[in-house]
Amino acid sequence: MKRILLFAVLLVVQLGFGQVSNYIFTESAGTYTTVSGTSAHASGWDDSVTANTIPIGFTFNFNGIAYTNCSISTNGFLTFGTTIANYNEFEPISSSSSYSGAISAFGIDLIDDNSREIVYTTTGTSPNRVFIVQWRQARRYYESGRMDFQIRLSETSNSINVIYSNFYLNNSNVNVQVGLRGASNADFNNRSLTSPNTSWDANTTAGTSAGATCRSRNNNQPSNGRTFTWTPVPPTITSLSSTNGCVGSTITINGTNLTGATAANVRIGGTPVASITSISSTQIVAVVGSGTTGLVTVTNASGTATSASTFTVNPAPTTSNAGVDQSGNSASYTLSANTPTVGTGAWSVISGPNTSLTQFSSTSNPSATFTPSISGTYVLRWTISSGSCTSSDQVVISGCVNNLITNGDFATGATGWTFA
Fold first, then answer.
1. What is the reported pTM?
2. Tens of pLDDT, residues 80-97
3. CA nearest neighbour of 96 among 181, 29, 39
4. DSSP string over 50-71
């Protein structure tokens, strides 16, 4: 028997690296609604796979990667990525094939049992569209009995629903693979049912290996409308590195499931950050942009996280200019720093014979008078502050007041002086 697996495709944007093993699984009693759509496989299908150009109809994020296309296998699953599965692929989750991901509703060797097409369609309107792939009256190869099922991909939430209906299987057991696979079979999120005479409803458990399977036979099958759902884990923000920062500084955001966020979707008070320096599942380091004070949010394909505390964005202070260096024999010096338009300025003495601030007529006046109490060289700093953000510049004042001899008598000479 030839078997061809259909493969999902067209990677559009890589947002980050995720793990399908982190997806949340739930199940419910839903409603199965038959749809009509475009034929992926004509009636009479068996062991076939489409090209990787089946349009989803919107951007769907799976395992941290955005796709607009996929490929569909007759054998109960679809895949993503540029590699197409082999026609004889019946175990899409445990397979070592290099497709980027797989969603398996009923992974096993299947065949058309009643001249029904496998169809796909996209329903709804943005941002709540749903892509549906439907198998009708499929049959397990070598066995009698029919089944219907659908794989549904939801826009925005990027959740996955597998809905089952009309299962009329014979009493022969066939083990099938149900669940998700990531970029390799080391990343999986699947279901297991090994007990005989047990319905799938509320009785499957999380698989402990990529090769885990669910029994399928007349007393091991899902009821009409049974819905298996996998939902990406939303991000969380657990802490911020600080409570304030200036434009151009960095902010470190700590949390979980943060991969997949872009600079446009990391926001402070609703304003995007300027850029992202680094990103991992647990931390984002971003450059603060010109924006407003407020809560920090991180949005990726799995949802939005919001910080518990507010981050204050301080405007960047005016670039400091301390003025020109001065030297001479003056008893005092008039300083000429710039007047800030953003922030406030303050003088300080970085080095010199005396670092007392009382030598300034005013520490906040850019044109203050500096009167050194002891002769020598002084390095003064003019710092402009805006919140926690600063800009500073230095000026050198060199004076030799104490080297002057006033009213001195040079007739007899003086130690240390050279007569001209």
1. 0.69
2. 999 988 888 999 999 999
3. 181
4. --TTEEEEEEEEETTEEEEEEE
